[in-house]
Specification:
346 residues, Type Iii Antifreeze Protein Isoform Hplc 12, 2 domains, 14 strands
């Protein structure tokens, strides 16, 4: 599977999520894209909606946020009015990303957004956690034949299966599920990354992480468990503020996270039992058989005059029992490695 010029699985696909971190200032949005490249991201992800494509302007109790979040006291429409990325900026942001060598794609929130993103030749679609139940949206996006990345923050098993089946029913097998905790910021103890491993086995798709925790621990552990994608909210400077600033990483923090993920990848390496040149050289400090007392020619080898000690210039310790059946072929000084030439075979 490829997203833009990135082959999924070649290394962890690290996505910087712009989200609302633009402060309704296009210059900030552009600089954020450039900073994402500097921070080591492989991709920048946008969100494509208007308040009217995601909710309605209504202030009755159903549309008021009052759940112990940082957004309490606001209506959904008011929040999305502040957070949305103007559609007229998209084309330029896609171009800036291409010029920077970043893959750029977006989360659509209705069919008109899919149509708009098709005009921009988006290389993939991201389905947000709260849209995983929007089966008509998933079906329409998946029908475009591009990779579908779906966050699972509010999804039960049956929701995930239905979303995957919806993609497959329109012939789209290029599916990536992201383990996500829909809490902002998310407590580390709710990450439950073993679920990510189970999703890969259970649903037969690639998996990754959409992370709202603070710090690098969860992305690093996810990488070690096989995550092919890591997505984190990215902000140019937290002083910009906005609804997502508190759980977004700035340039320094995001760079640190990228380094930690890349270090984890290097540590995982590959399955090999070959020794590197550096380790091979250090084998000389392993154990081998040495004379630990002066031994006369014709004298029998014993456990008192031959031992397995460091360094590793003598015979392998596995030969000790065999050597103890034999005698010295020459005088051997204490501290001389035992070699085949010093053994008179009986």
């Amino acid at each position: 599977m490829e997203i833009g010029n990135f082959k999924i699985g070649s290394k962890t696909f690290i996505i910087a999520e712009l989200s609302a971190n633009h402060g309704h200032d296009k210059s900030i949005a552009i600089e954020t894209v450039k900073a994402a490249k500097k921070a080591g991201a492989d991709a920048i992800k946008l969100q494509t909606y208007r308040p009217d494509t995601i909710t309605i302007d209504c202030d009755n109790k159903y549309f008021q946020i009052n759940d112990g979040t940082q957004w309490d006291g606001r209506t959904l429409y008011d929040l999305y009015e502040e957070a949305h990325l103007p559609w007229e900026w998209h084309e330029e942001l896609f171009k800036v990303a291409r010029d920077e060598g970043l893959t750029c794609f977006s989360s659509p929130f209705d069919k008109t957004a899919v149509d708009f993103l098709e005009e921009l030749n988006t290389p993939a679609y991201k389905i947000a956690s709260f849209e995983i139940q929007d089966i008509p949206l998933i079906e329409y996006a998946a029908s475009k034949g591009k990779p579908i990345i779906m966050s699972t923050g509010i999804a039960m098993k049956e929701d995930i299966k239905l979303a995957i089946d919806t993609c497959r029913n329109v012939g789209n097998e290029e599916i990536i599920l992201l383990k996500c905790t829909s809490s902002y910021p998310a407590p580390i103890e709710l990450a439950n990354l073993k679920t990510m491993v189970d999703m890969k086995e259970r649903f037969g798709v690639e998996v990754g992480l959409s992370d709202h925790t603070l710090g690098n621990t969860v992305p690093v552990v996810a990488t070690s468990l096989g995550a092919k994608v890591i997505e984190k909210h990215f902000i140019l400077d937290k002083s910009i503020g906005g609804p997502d600033a508190d759980f977004s990483l700035d340039l320094k923090e995001f760079s640190s996270m990228v380094k930690a993920v890349r270090d984890a990848e290097m540590a995982l390496g590959e399955v090999t039992y070959e020794l590197s040149e550096k380790v091979e050289k250090n084998k000389k400090f392993a154990r081998s058989l040495f004379a630990v007392k002066d031994i006369k020619k014709g004298e029998k080898f014993t456990e008192k005059n031959v031992r397995s000690i460091r360094p590793g210039y003598g015979l392998h310790p596995k030969y000790l029992k065999e050597i103890l059946k034999n005698e010295a072929s020459n005088d051997i000084e204490r501290g001389i490695p035992i070699t085949n030439q010093l053994i008179a075979r009986n």
